[in-house]
Each structure stands twice: as structure tokens, then as C-alpha cells.
Here is the input.
Amino acid sequence: MKILVCISNVPDTTTKITFSPDGKAFNTGGVQFVINPYDEYALTRAIELKEAQGGTVTVLNVGEADTEPNIRKALAIGADDAIRVNVKPTDAFLVAQQIAHVAKEGAYDLILMGRESIDYNGFQVHGMVGELLGIPTIAPAIKLDVNGSTATLEREIEGGKEIIEVSLPLVASAQQPMTEPRIPNMRGIMTARTKPLQVLEPVGQDAKTSVQKYELPPAKSGVKMIDAENAGELIKLLRNEAKVL
Amino acid sequence: MSVLVVIECANGEVKKSSLEAASYGSKVATSLGTSATAVAIGDVQADALTSLGEQGITKVLLDNDSRLHNFVPAAYVKVIAKAAASENSSVIVLSNSNIGAAIGSRLAVQLSASLATNVVALPEISGSAFTVRRGVFSGKAFSDVELTADKKIIAVKKNAVEIETAAGATATVENFSADLADADFTGAPKETIKQSGDILLTEADLVVSGGRGLKGPENWHLIEELAKTLGAATACSKPVADIGWRPHHEHVGQTGITVSPNLYIAVGISGAIQHLAGVNSSKVIVVINKDPEAPFFKAADYGIVGDALEVVPKLIEAAKAL
Here is the structure.
């Protein structure tokens, strides 16, 4: 089984988000970038499937050279090889187009990624890749098993879950509780250095959106404290002042 | 040119998030000088659709193919694409639900459309420029995004827009068929498992959420009783889900579920930045924590410093007395 796992490079979850004074750019200074947490679930599940059933796991990142430390981390966790498509991922369609191209060329059986990236929160790329390839997309999947050429997945829906059986190839996006992410060990870190990382140029840069400006939400006006002894007063304030009850 | 709104239904009724999408779509239609049509898929009463007139919808296309009673992305997309073609729609409005996002991304490719998810405000339309505001960085910021393709798809975040209610206005309901083939149903669910009884976290207007300050799963009845008394859904912080006190589908935060209810009550949650990212677009935030230095108080509208096990029973008592 050939598995392609798409990872994006995102600010660490504890990052305090700030922008340039004109609001045009995210300030990356001093920010640590990590593998998108949802993508880590996809990567770990792919490695588990490979360990159980054989096959290969290729990691794909659409991004510029500064993402390579996190690509190496994915190799250290257990992916076999990696591809980086050398373009700034400014638009979901642009990214999906690159992934679909790589997936088609490599004839992958499974294309996995996280449900969304924690920076742009698009929740779009997996569906676009599935449509570009003309194969099913199951998103967001909370469970994934493969038996021969059939995959069984659980998809989270509002108010429950669905069990879906579908033939490979397919695209699935991961979210908890699919698996627990792994931390690279020393041997993984050493071998990752010698694993192949191929850099490809993009196949077109056909963006359909353009970010004009970023803005932070207005600061809260301040918290109104209520004495714990008189906690019931809160319920009255929520009804009469905040009008949410 | 027209605006098409995709209506999601559950148990024969239109979902609240779809009423919001309908209100949004009809406002966009007004600013474009056109009308708003809706497309509804699956098992829903015509009466429920007629009343979409109150949200400004003039006509509803209903495809009640029984194979569509479960969500199958490819089939839904085909119905919506055909409806968009028959209405000559240049703007399509969806809810930012799991279903809406799954449809939106596939539809965007089919129609060569621009797609914006997580949209929190009406578009700014100036000449040919069409710009929407969306939540990014897990709710820690907004971005204004220009949709540059001729066709635009917008997925509206829950609770971001008010529901219009023009009393008495009705929409006409027309049957619609996309002539689906069996091949369109690849990936149909084999089995659906519904949670019973509980209020859905993703649909809830009120959420009561607990963290490690509850001290153990044996105290969770306090969260449940407060939620039940208020008519709220229950949720939890990541550490609580990780140690197995609560199931993962209740975990709210950056890597869990993002919620934007009218009221979020956080009990015994200190307010790590990852948790805040999942809840900070809630309209009113209440924080109950015994540590007066808990960072969550900075994001709160109302706060109580105290032990959850002592404070929550008082809240339950006061809520029962309402």
C-alpha cells in the first residue's frame, strides 16, 4: 500500500498571533513552526498501517524551504521519503492542485491529511484533492482501517458517527481519536537525515482567493467578578444583563 | 445571477445554522440586486421549507430522493451543482458544518469557484471586488479574503449572523431531481450511529464545559446537571479527554471542536491558549476557577473565583429557581 500524507507547517499552538502594522502579514519572528497537529494524527495512522500491512509512507508538504525541519521530523517519526512542492501555500486550491498532481503521478492508494490546518482553518484541501482526482473523500475521519483494497472509516457527523466502507484509492482527513501522535526517537532522528527529500516545482499557481488584511478581535472590556458565596447572582446577570438565558 | 443557499435538515426540520445561512444569503442577494433561492436535500417537510420565506428565501428546490437521506458528498454536490446551474447562481451559501465544508470544497473545484469557509460577516462588495471576513488561527484572528473567481462559495460560521424573521413571508417549494445514478453514491455510509438525547455540542447555543478542576469523573454529574437545567450541551478540556474522564467528541479547543455559542461556561479550566482558541468566539464567556490568576479570566465576561464543587451546586440551585 502506497500512502501519501500531506503535512502543513503551522505556528506552534501556544503562539500569540500578531500582524504587521498594516495588517497585511502574519509576524513570523520568534514563532516556532510545527507539523499541523491534525496532520500528525494522519501521519501516525499511516505509519501504523504500514507497520501492520507493509507498504510505504511518503510525506508531502507544499511550502518553501523553511518547512524542511518539520518534513525531517515527519521522516524521523517513521515516513520513508518526502516531497516538497516549492511554493508558498497561500490558497487552498493552489495547495490542492499540487497534492492532486503528486498523488496522481505516484499512484497512491491512500491520501491522508488533517481535517484542517490550525492557521488558516480552511477545511477545504481534502475535498478539493478528492474532487480533482475523482475519488471519494471521507472527512473528518475518526477511525481508519484497511483490509486489502477496502477501507473502513468512521466519519464524525453532527450528532453521531457513520461507518463507511469504500474501495481504495481515497482521500481521508484525520481528527482525534484516530490515534495518538508519536514523538521521534533518537534512531528515527538519525535515519531521517539520510532519507530522500525530493523538491518539485509547482504545477501552476492557480489561486482563487487573496488575503487582503488580518485583524485581531477586539479586546474584551474586562471581566465582572462575582463573589463565590453569592454565586447564584451569576445566573440572574446572565438572564437580565447579558440576556443569554 | 442569483444566490443559492444550501439547506441542511435534521429530523424533518431545517437546522438553525441553515436559517442563519438563509438569512445571510438573502442579504447578499439584496445587495447584488437579485433573489435568493434555496436547495434542500433529503428528508424534510415541505412546511418547514415554506417558512424559509421568513429568512428572505423566495423559492426552495427540494430533492427528496430517498438515497439522499444519508449524507453522501458526491451525490449532494451533484444536486447542488445542478441547482446552481438551473438558477444561474453566482454565489452559493452553506453552513460551516462538517457537511457544508465537505460539499463546499468539492463544489468549488467543479464550478471553478472561490471558496471561503468559517465566514463571520456579510461580504464587502465594491465594483468587482467581493471580500469576506473569516476566522483564522483557530479563532485568534480574522482575515479579509477577496474571492477572485466569478463564482463564490461561502460557508457561514454558526452564530455569526442574526436570523431574519419577516413574519408571514413564505417561499414556494418545487420538487427537484438531479437524476442521480447509483455510482454517485460511492462512499455512502453503511451504518449511522446517532447519539441519543444529548444536545449537540456543535449546534448548541449554551455550553457548560469542565476541566481538571472537577477533580475526577465522579464529579461530572455537576456539569451535566447544570447543563440540563440550562438546556446546554456539555463539553470538556483536552486534558480531561486525554485522561479518559470524558469522550474525545466533547473536547473543545484548538485540536478538538471549535464552538461559538451564545454562552460558554468554563468550570475548572485554567484557559490554556489552545483551549481559548476553540471558544473565544463565544458571545459571553463565564469562568469559574479557584485560581484567581487563571489566564481564562482575561478572556471572560463574568468570573467567579471558587472551588467548582462548591460553586456549581449554587448555580444549579439558582438556575432551577429561574
Observations:
- The CA atoms of residues 82 and 153 of chain B lie 15 Å apart.
- The mean pLDDT of chain B is 92.
